[in-house]
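Students often ask why we bother predicting the structure of a whole assembly rather than each chain alone. The short answer is interfaces. A chain on its own may look different once its partners are present, and contacts between molecules only exist in the joint model. In this exercise we take two input lines together and write out one structure for the complete complex. Read the inputs first and try to guess which parts will touch.
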Amino acid sequence: MVTDVRLPAWNHGPTRTAVLDFVDAADALPVESRVAVFDNDGTLWCEKPNYPQLMFMLDELRRAAASDPTLAERLEYRVLLDNDVHAQAEIGLERIAFALIELCSGIGPEEFGDRVAAFFARHRHQERGVSYLDLRYQPMLELIDELRAHDFDVFIVTGGGAEFVRSISQMFYGVTPDHVVGSLVGYEFTRDSKGRPTLLRTTELFGEVNEGAPKVANIQLQLGRRPIFAAGNSPGDAEMLEYALATGTPSMALLVNHDDAEREYAYAGRAGSFETDAPFEETASSLGITVASMRSDWATIFPVGPI
Amino acid sequence: MVTDVRLPAWNHGPTRTAVLDFVDAADALPVESRVAVFDNDGTLWCEKPNYPQLMFMLDELRRAAASDPTLAERLEYRVLLDNDVHAQAEIGLERIAFALIELCSGIGPEEFGDRVAAFFARHRHQERGVSYLDLRYQPMLELIDELRAHDFDVFIVTGGGAEFVRSISQMFYGVTPDHVVGSLVGYEFTRDSKGRPTLLRTTELFGEVNEGAPKVANIQLQLGRRPIFAAGNSPGDAEMLEYALATGTPSMALLVNHDDAEREYAYAGRAGSFETDAPFEETASSLGITVASMRSDWATIFPVGPI
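Now the answer. The structure tokens for the assembled complex follow.
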């Protein structure tokens, strides 16, 4: 049967069946309504023990500090260079993140993209020693292919930097940069020495960090299309998942549950906006969200097999 | 020869040849770099004697005032309902436009889109008596088709409202809503009576009006891709046209010159950011921009032939 070759990295069971039932039901919808959105960190690729974007920024910091040692005098940078986890927690990730944004200010989008691409070409995961290409989730790559085979338009809606993800979205997921919605750093319009229009990265956010309710607003602001499928893995995806489900039938929201300490990592998302301390994975089912267990629903996790 | 069927609404001559030479040269480029952006008002459809979006907002105002006569007491609305052109000029289009935005505040994107679609279904051009579908420019529709035949990704970058243009971009141009960049009204995230996530239009702009330098910044912010082809018709497109040209060869910037009083309208764009009083059409050539004369370069202007 043809069905047997669909989603081979997914174990047979209710989750895989629910996914395939949704995809097949969407065949009855107008093509323009077949819109799917995926979170990135922890949904399409591994986000532990650190976000890939943080590793990129650390790499930028180390390279910058090598040629300008005075950078290490700045508190937000020093705690990173010293790997002082306690001091990092005290300062807070937000303040550190904004300080790191400054490292790439004043450069154009092309140079930023080149730096990100070069980072991924040389960087290896700190615990697994492999490229991040090998830390994409094979079941999700198959799901993207399956959705596209049913004429879905597939977008990434990330809490991370839009330009960061755009730099690798084509290579990693076959997703063009215009199909990526994320947190945005503003640009200054200027002219170069030859009078040509040029954009330079600033240190300011444009709009809000793309997490939670802003994910929903930014989907409308930047795409103007409403998803009928959404996948995520954390409370920051909650509103987006609910938003997809609220379109009626057929629609689907999928939550990746990181419950596989052996093959990946085990960690739960807190309920966030749901005003309860229960793990988001527990709250999700009551909202109609389909929870995919990495341990039991995924036969394979990474493209090159078990690591 | 196959060449004879390309761009049939364009007269043979240097402009048509330049367009075809560019399209053919782009065949040598990676597909992902084949990005084309088009302004909308005056570039893809007729913007005279009034912007279609202003006609829509006037229509909204008349319908709202019919059920709530107190609206006519507000100065910005009264000068419109009275067709008091002098008072309109005194108040200024910007103040009037912001007042009109309020008419659609508090509704969701779907209802807004439905209102726009319904308007275009019933509205007829005030002087020509035809649907706006018949006031698209046939040569530009052919150019979009030609670019797509050469694997270009085609985007609209409008000074008008993004959501307004998105409501008709698929029907008018085969352009999906996510391929439209424009001026944005913000959304408030809320929940409906059943607790479902909902977006409601506010009265605030999100970011800047999408004209001039902001067009360039918004192309990067929302699309993350750099155009090698740009078409426009006014000083508000100048930076975008220069930006496309600055990518090197092959690249092309096309300026539609409204010099055909007989078949369309004759009006010139002022030079805007170029700090000269010369019409933009004169300044353009010195910047390497190709000027398309509606009068001499276009054999046909509208899809249904001369009106």
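Check your guess against this: The interface with chain B takes residues 32, 109-110, 153, 155, 162-163, 166, 170, 176-180, 184, 186-187, 189, 196-199, 206-207, 213-214, 216-217, 220-226, 239, 242-243, 246 of chain A (CB under 8 Å).
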